[in-house]
Amino acid sequence: MGKDLSMMEGEISADNEMTVTLSLENAEGRLEDFRCVIDTGFSDYLSLPFEDIERFGLSYLESRPFILGDNQPVMFSIFTGRIYWDGKVREIPILAAEGTPLVGMRLLRGAVFFSDIRDGGKVFIRAF
Prior knowledge:
The chain is mainly beta. It is built from two helices and ten strands; from the N terminus they run E-E-E-E-H-E-E-E-E-H-E-E. The two termini are about 20 Å apart. The relative contact order is 0.29.
């Protein structure tokens, strides 16, 4: 039986973060893996630091304000990128934000995810 492409696996880090490896298309059109943290408090698709946005050669789309968890409005630059998700390449908006790359709720929309919350525990994401 072949591998189920609609099931992605990650793990719980020692810092109790749910992590998953995603593949993003670089400027040469090749998919390149990078590690992300699943953030259920992040309502958009994906965030990446500026150095990764430059490295992947992503195209600028726009800047717009977002309200952070502390109720403060902040302007973010948004780029477009193509990720491998649910067995196919999908174009999504990507926010430029410092820190660890984050997977947000819009990217998870239409999927089920569950995890075994312990050091090294597994995270499973299945798109429907």
